[in-house]
């Protein structure tokens, strides 16, 4: 659907090991699509079933590991990285558990919150690491209950590295990962899919390689669903380990842990923490170029591609798990060279799908949040039921308040300094604001030479779909029709269309033209006169921050503006214009002027006063052209409004809104 639509530590290298027994708001492609575009059957399935189905079909796949950041700004950056790396279609991601970082808390840098955000707001199937280290049985149960409440349904059960030099037993706790697996199954039955760690060369604390294999089988027999291995440097190391596991009856999926070498210091730290030995031939290449990060990274990519190719060609390795160290360049390049990075433009639905299991039936949303899907999910997180097939108005539950615009998963990815460069260090008048919107639409540098890559209503550049409307959008924004959401009319495009397509292949998608914008009260007075001659073709809703409210929506009923027809299915209508929910959206849309823009400037400064004036005096308007097979008439509506405004004053009249 639309496009203008209206660090941490080294536990990423498995230092948490298990030892012993163990559009102006116009939305971008990333913000309007599900991070992992999967068939409908995958939306509600558990991870082990997705893994099995992909393996049986011969479809190769990958997964990614991340660690929690140290800072709040790091959390913002990591969520942005989730969106970018999620675009390549990972089957899942996992988030490590760092005991020193308060991992089970509500802090934005905690393992629990990062994993929860990935599931709920980024649409990524996620695995949360959990270790036994320095934890009581009661505390572990509490963490698991919290994870379940947050929508997490996959756990990687690990012993964890000791806080000191040696492992110290915890009274009322667990000493081995197998005990944690048993506890999860005992307390939560089959709710969680459980992953455990495997060691291709044997755990460094195990008595022998064979002994460690037996411990791994114990973990699987206790209820683990799949295994992810510690990293290794040779493909034959993993393939031998896989054969040895199968020989003793371990039949579950075993995923090789892949670590593309990205730098000299990171490799040294890796050797120290994982107690692995780097092969001499690799060391010989790296030592002479140890001060050249780019050269080491390129070498690491080459090694990883070679090793992964051997693994995939063996026929026994359908999936690869990558230790990213929260970086993206090397891993993405390896995946591209392997042909595993697939940015499929098609979306299961025209908006970003949450991976929370309680939302699996959700398939209808108001279009207003198309550019801010994370905000919509946040404001509806307490709903017990989600619209399925049809949007209801008066029966819909109330939207939650959005008072904290600085939650790390809602905050702009850009710094205050960058936003000021884009939106203006100093605003002189309303026209200065018009220019910001226009520069966003045109992707042209502003007077300071900076491109406007985002606006308060959308934190991403324009999407391909918005480019279908670019010329018209530029024209109206220059004259103070400040668009934050739009979509073109579409009449039966294939669902596989790379720009507007969504849903299963073999279908057809449809859209009514939609336009949402802020504009002055003077413009609204003219617009209301013009709209009289376009009824009933055009539906409108016009409101200001003071709740002066005008609409011709019949009986306040919702209006479907996007729908799809697919083989063997009922019609799907994933987005609607709903007058009731528009009033909830209105509060957020107006508040963003103040919360995201005005607060960049000093109190009482001219720049802040200009933004506040717009907030206090402009109207928010949405327009729907119901005759989708015909040419979009909304641009003519706006042209007629401008023509009336340009006419002698007596033609406009004095009626107020």
TrEMBL record:
Protein name as annotated: Methylenetetrahydrofolate reductase (NADPH)
Organism domain of life: Eukaryota
Assembly with partners or alone: Homodimer.
Ranges for domain MTHFR SAM-binding regulatory: 346-646
GO molecular function, one term: methylenetetrahydrofolate reductase (NADPH) activity
Record's keyword terms, sorted: Allosteric enzyme, FAD, Flavoprotein, NADP, Oxidoreductase, Phosphoprotein
Cofactor(s) recorded in Swiss-Prot or TrEMBL: FAD
Annotated EC: 1.5.1.53
Assigned protein family: Belongs to the methylenetetrahydrofolate reductase family.
Primary enzyme class: oxidoreductase
Biased amino acid composition, Low complexity: 15-26
Described purpose of this protein according to its UniProt entry: Catalyzes the conversion of 5,10-methylenetetrahydrofolate to 5-methyltetrahydrofolate, a cosubstrate for homocysteine remethylation to methionine. Represents a key regulatory connection between the folate and methionine cycles.
InterPro entries, per the entry: FAD-linked_oxidoreductase-like, Fadh2_euk, Mehydrof_redctse-like, MTHFR_C
Bias type Basic and acidic residues, positions: 40-54
GO cellular component: cytosol
Disordered, as annotated region: 1-54
Organism: Oryzias latipes
Pathway stated in the Swiss-Prot or TrEMBL entry: One-carbon metabolism; tetrahydrofolate interconversion
